[in-house]
Amino acid sequence: MFCFQVAVNTVIRDEKEFLNHIIKSTNMKCLTAPSALDGECGFLAANLYAKSVFGEDALVNVSIEKQTDGKLSGYIRIRSKTQGIALSLGDKITLKQKGGS
């Protein structure tokens, strides 16, 4: 099992908007129930899943919190059985997370 971690670095200031941006950018499915994402508490944790065209599975855990200055911080952890998909997904997330939606 390979694990790759990406620090959150974005101009987006809303937790749910950031999660939706990552889901859209990576074409992953959110495994976390929508009801678990309701409310405003300043924290968000969600699990995402994807299967590549080669049949490789990838699991992503998004864990973010809103700081007192309004910026988001946290980590995105990527797990897969192969190193290639973990690294390429990590690179894609690093590039895509910076811009707003």
From TrEMBL:
GO annotation, biological process: endoplasmic reticulum to Golgi vesicle-mediated transport; intra-Golgi vesicle-mediated transport; intracellular protein transport
Residue ranges constituting the Coatomer beta subunit appendage platform domain according to the UniProt record: 5-93
Entry's Gene Ontology cellular component terms: COPI vesicle coat
Domain of life of the organism encoding this protein: Eukaryota
Pfam (any one): Coatomer_b_Cpla
Name of the featured protein: Coatomer beta subunit appendage platform domain-containing protein
Organism: Tetracentron sinense (Spur-leaf)
